[in-house]
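User: Could you check the structure of this?
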Amino acid sequence: MKYHLEVGARTVEDALSAERAGAARAELYSSPMEGALTPSAGLIKYAKAAVTNLFLQVMIRPRSGGFCYSKSEFEIMQSDTETAVEMGADGIMFGILTENNSLDIRRMKDLIKRYSGLPVTLHRAFDFTNDPFRTLEEAIDLGCTYVMPLGQNNPGGFGRKMVEKFVKQAGNRIKVMIALGSSFDNAELDQVIKETGALDYHIVNNYSQANRPYNLERFAATPDAGWSRDYLDEDIVRSTKAILNKYEK
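Assistant: Sure, the predicted structure tokens are below.
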């Protein structure tokens, strides 16, 4: 059995860090405070050019606040999907729901068709459907490669027993990639692996913060003024991959 690790990447540097640390895939996205939105064409193009073996998935999500989209928002998603293909994306991730929180099969099919048969991930829109077991079957019928539930024992995610049921239902027909949220502690990963049986994991607890003061006289009166940004922490990615490696046969 081989275990695969996917991490989030917001910059070209993040993608390079993911590759150096041994991740198999990176999800390219922007606007983390809005729950992850579509990255720019430039980021897709230059991240793809920078890495050698890293599989780059591109988030297709035009806005935050749910997964039921207007006509114009869906047209943006169609255009963004085509752009992602042109810029060299290895895979895309998205999810579209109807007003009654079921999978929008017609629109899902449309985007998948535009992506030329390459790997597709049904992202956390899966978590918001009324019947996740039915949605899992629909994702299989659509030809999705992955489905990505949030597998965390808190109100925002599925408990491990539920994820274990998804893994068993999926069998070899689709891969269940467990998303582990920002509050997840790697000390729990051994137990998650044993309890769920999943082989694919997506982590977002792998960011550290860089801070810089502004070197401008007009900020002299506010010594804490400056900027900060998150960057992918290679050490956390590497330690997570090391845990997964222990279980490979």
